[in-house]
Amino acid sequence: MKKIIFLLSGLILINCSKSGGEKQEVKADLTEVLTEDRAPSPAAAPPPPPLSISEKVVSDENGTNKDVYPSKKTDTISKKIIKNGEMKIQVGDIKKTQNQVDEIIKKNNAYIQKEEFQNTDMDDNLTLIIRVPHKNFDALINSFSEGVGTVLSKNISSNDVTEEYTDVAIKLANKKIYLEKYRDMLKSAATTKDMLEIQENIRELEDEIDVAEGRLRFIDDRVNYSTLNLNLYKEKVRSSATSKIGFGSRFADSVTEGWNSFISFLLGIISLWPFFLIIPVIVFIWRKWKSKNKNKN
Questions:
Q1: Which residues contact 144 (CB under 8 A, 6 or more apart)?
Q2: Could you tell me which of 162, 148, 143 has the C-alpha nearest to residue 85?
Q3: Where are the domains of the chain?
């Protein structure tokens, strides 16, 4: 009986020692895991300290602050195509054709930006500057080419401004990032000199941002709405009665012009009156001098 109790006690002590070792191993493993978790990873390293307040943020061209202020990722910009056109159409009746043109413009959701009419002895000219959505530009051109009149000339051009638009958009995004950085720096400015310098940089950036945004709006307007310069031309055909009236009018103009020329000539002669007074005096003095020389001889 004593031997059995002694064996059981030994087995219990051995199991306790093993469990203690396992617990120590588990604790060691947990300690290592916690240590690894507390150790800062390279990806989670704190950001570099900001630039001093007196340093200016320069543009990407200099390549000095690209790592400090990374460029903002911009979305992919679709193609930016500006379409312009010029057309000259000979018509039989300007007023009738203008009504037809108005219907075509309305159908294509376009509008007239400028209208100019000239009436001369030889012809009538109606010039329209039309702005039309880019998707309706080709349909508008085709409508004017068919059924309006005889197309005397047509010039269509396309200008790809995608590269310019992308460049301006990227620079604008970067300038906005710089602007926010300066505003944050202004909050923590310690001296008046630093505040004035930062405010000046903010003002310059705001001006540059306004210019860039205006350029983008201009390009968007030219891309979204194409421009067509349309000229309606009507040559005047003179009848016999009109020709007679035209000849009589021109004859009267010629007589009037001849009379005006005669008056101008007469007034020109009158304007020379000082010379008419001086010439007789010169002749009188010359003759008197000549007579004195004869008497001496």
A1: 87, 89, 101, 104, 151, 230
A2: 143
A3: 82-162+227-235, 170-222
Alpha carbon 288 to chain centroid, angstroms: 83
Domain 82-162+227-235 bears CATH identifier 3.30.70: yes
CB under 8 Å to 232, separation ≥6 — which residues? 89, 91, 94, 97, 98, 101, 125, 126, 127, 128, 149
Q: pLDDT, tens digit, for every residue of 163-183?
A: 999 999 999 999 999 999 999
Helix (H, G, I), strand (E, B) or coil at 83: strand
Distance (Å, whole) CA 202 – CA 199: 5
Element of type H or E holding 73: none
Q: Are strands 81-90 and 225-235 parallel, antiparallel or unpaired?
A: parallel
Q: What is residue 29's predicted lDDT score, i.e. its pLDDT?
A: 40
In the 8-state DSSP scheme, what is residue 287? H
**pLDDT tens readout for residues 26-58:** 333 433 333 333 344 433 333 343 444 334 443
